[in-house]
Amino acid sequence: MNGINEKWGAWSNKPEPIRQEEVIETISADIIVVGAGISGVTCALRAAQTGSTVLVCEKSDSWVGRGGNIGVANSSFMKSKGFEYDVGEIAREWIKRCGNRCDEGIVWLYLSNSNRAMDWLCDIVTKPEYGARPELQGCVYNGETYREIFGSHRFFDGPMAKKGSRAGAADAVYAMYTEAVKLGVQFLFNAPATQLLSEGERVTGVYVREESDDGYLLAKAHKAVVLATGGIGGNADMCEDLAPLANRCAMKIYWPKDADAGDGHRMGLWAGGTLEDPPFPMILHPQAFLTSNYCFLFVKQDGTRFMNEDNYIQGKSIAILRERMTFAWSIIDSAWREKVPPTLDFGGGIFWGQDCAPGEEGFDPDQEQRSFERGIERGVIVVAETPEELAIKMEVPVDVFLSTFIRYNQMVALGTDKDFGKRKELLIALDEPPYYGIKFGPALLSVVGGLRVDTKMRVLGESGRPVDGLYAIGNAMGGRYGVDYPMMIPGNSNGTALTYGYLLGEQISNS
Questions:
Q1: Rounded Cα–Cα distance for residues 77 and 172 (Å)
Q2: H runs (alpha helix) in 227-308
Q3: Closest-CA residue to 205 (of 190, 191, 218, 192)
Q4: Would residue 392 count as lying in a domain?
Q5: What contacts 378, CB < 8 A, 6 or more positions away?
Q6: Distance CA 449, CA 240 (A)
Q7: CA distances from 474 to 34, 36, 240, 396, 446 (A)
Q8: pLDDT bucket at 165, cuts 50 / 70 / 90
Q9: Which of 165, 290, 361, 400 is 20 to 30 A away from residue 135, measured at CA?
Q10: pLDDT digit string (tens) for 480-501?
């Protein structure tokens, strides 16, 4: 190694430069995009549409369409359904939820342009050859404190959905990839990028190790190198330095497995870029054991209550990690069929209600019953006739849990949560045996912090000046979130990836 970095662990150490004699092939294009996820494929297509030649290098064996939702603000489709929001209000709330640690210019760039990017995408995916049908996600949190809006787009009935993929990003990326190939964009799969080439102070290319070769392919860029390599969640050493809570999650569900290894973060750092301040924010969903968790009574493994259960998915997940746990128990009773639906008017959202479109029923008891039966078979739901028996099955201290259970019902009767301040509308008695204990815990979707960039997506060095020729988008870029992932618009990580990829492809071609 010729660059020991004392600030971070060994993952940050700069490797020896690749020697010229190790290069067995050199190719070139105006723009080299590293990564074929939603941000990289979007950038590649938009750049090709606006006149650039593009080469995309991807370490896995195909493009990647991850996730079910792409969240934006005020698309034409949203407006056609009667949903239009004040972007200024969204921005202020977003910045507040990020602890004022996000880059306000980058947030505004997304909120002001995501409608245009989504309109462009909808025009593509609804072409007859793709035939995808857009719809909005209807299960949003309705409380004022963690309010979410109807901006999360999904795509149904497209070619990938018909093959069994989850409705959403897969058909979006498939359609963009196909259109990009039509325009001459070259995709190299099983081709992991390992280092960037710098000539003077400018990044001019990428060294790629192809699966079947003993040497390196050098992809040289006439205009720009774009890092669209995803996050760091699959790299435990990087997480320990930059997002330690990620390693405490019960599971990591990013796919393809190990794809999010922080490759772009490291290459950008070695080329003179800088990372935003840790700890990096994370996308967390409380779905590691069972997806249903509701809002009644949550207890830790010691039998005590630890939070206001009236919260959204990010808040529930963070609270569990804060308590040094991988899971908690959600307690309900046998009257859940009658008790859950009224709560959706006050709270709701993912894993409280059910996936639906606006106007559809937000809760299907029969679907939930089937989920419960699977949970009981898997051992992540326990059922008992008494609180004492439930405690034994959950393996929590019986006396402590019984005290917690009794106190909770007493506060329900009083109509006041003196311990955590839950709204009275959601203080609902647990008094109809049998009782259920549902095991739930945080799953890591992605770590969403990265390289410092400006509003042109240029990677910034220590002085704040751009690293010439180098850009970052998607989960390789920083600035979007600061310290937490704001679920104001569900699916906004994919939405920002789409928006910044779209803007950057256009920008570089026109520069």
A1: 15
A2: 236-242, 263-270
A3: 218
A4: yes
A5: none
A6: 14
A7: 11, 11, 21, 42, 11
A8: confident
A9: 290
A10: 999 999 999 999 999 999 999 9
Number of domains in the chain: 1
In one-letter notation, the amino acid at residue 204 is: T
At residue 155, the pLDDT reads: 95
Report the chain's mean pLDDT, rounded to a whole number: 95
Range of the domain at 328: 287-441
CATH assignment of the domain containing 412: 3.90.700.10
One-letter identity of residue 306: F
| CA gap 470, 199 in Å, rounded | 12
- Give the tokens for residue 295: 């809002």
- The bridge status of strand 193-199 relative to strand 186-188 is unpaired
With b for 16 or more beta-carbon neighbours within 10 A and e for fewer, the 119-146 pattern comes to ebbbebbbeeebbbebbbbbbbbbbeeb
Instruction: Name which of 342, 344, 366, 362 is nearest 354 in CA terms.
Output: 362
Return the HEC string of 17-53: CCCHHHEEEEEEEEEEEECCCHHHHHHHHHHHHCCCC
Query: Does residue 204 lie within any of the structural domains?
Result: no
Residue 178 backbone dihedrals phi, psi, to 5 degrees: -60, -40
Measure CA 463 to chain center.
30
Q: Is residue 377 part of a domain?
A: yes
Q: Which amino acid is at 101?
A: R
Query: What is each CA distance from 140 to 151, 167, 354, 470, in whole angstroms?
Result: 10, 18, 9, 37
Percent residues over pLDDT 70 in the chain:
99
Whole-prediction pTM value?
Answer: 0.96
State whether residue 458 is helix, strand or coil. strand
